[in-house]
Structures are given as C-alpha cells and as structure tokens.
Amino acid sequence: MMRAAALLMMLLAMPAAAQQRVTEAPGVVLRGLDKINGLLYDIEMYTGQTAEFGDLRIELTSCRYPAGNPSGDAFAALQISDANRGTELFSGWMIASTPALSAMDHSRYDIWVMRCATS
User: Fold this and answer.
1) May I ask which residue range the UniProt record assigns to the signal sequence (predicted)?
2) Distance CA 94, CA 82 (A)
C-alpha cells in the first residue's frame, strides 16, 4: 500500500508528458455583466493595460491560447480591484471554457474571458 502511494505521489509530481503548447496573445476580450441592469459589455484590452468596468479596475497580465488555434480555449491572468475602495477582488487565471472554476466573487458584476485578442 505504501509503495502504491509513493508511486502515485511521484507520478503526480512529474510534469505531464503531453503538455499543450500555448501562444502568448497581445490582448484579451472579456465579457462583463452588470447584474443590476442585466446588461452585457465586451471589454477589449491589451497586456499591461488597465480597464474600468463600473466600480472595477481590471489589469491584464497575460493571455494565452493553444498554439495554432486562436479561437481555442483562452486563459488570462487578471488582477481585478474595487476602484473606489482599492481592495483586491481577484488575482489569478481565468479560463474561457470553465469560468466558474476561477471566478471573481462580486455582488454586482461578473467578469469572464471570451477569447484572446490576436491583433
């Protein structure tokens, strides 16, 4: 039993042999929802840029997508803060195909990744 557990731990610690290659994109297209008025907004921004959406301040650190497939599953590194209070609401990776996996928790706004902007 101990050997099986040790083997499992070693296998989990090794990098995946078939890791998907990714391409860095210059920007991202986000979708924002204002839950109060029910309106959707598309937000296009570029790496290092800061955008404002309602009371939120959004900064893009990176956007990546599968190599050779720009319409594929995008994942973006974002920092989102409350512009009025200066408090950080989210810092990490959001994934287009699974927005609930790493979501920002806010009473009024939802933000999710649509795709990387390639131009």
Assistant:
1) 1-18
2) 18
| Angle (nearest 5°) at CA 41 between 99 and 105 | 40
- At 26 the three-state DSSP class reads coil
Could you report the per-residue pLDDT of 50-92, keeping only the tens digit for each?
A: 999 999 999 999 999 998 887 778 999 999 999 999 899 999 9
User: What 8-state DSSP symbol labels residue 14?
Assistant: S
Q: Which residue ranges make up each domain of the chain?
A: 23-117
Q: Measured between alpha carbons, how far is 96 from 42 in angstroms, rounded to an integer?
A: 14
- How does pLDDT run across 27-56, given as a tens digit for each residue? 999 999 999 999 999 999 999 999 999 999
Tell the residue number behind the tokens 């950080």, with chain if given.
Answer: 88
**What is the C-alpha to C-alpha distance for residues 106 and 56, in angstroms, rounded to an integer?**
10
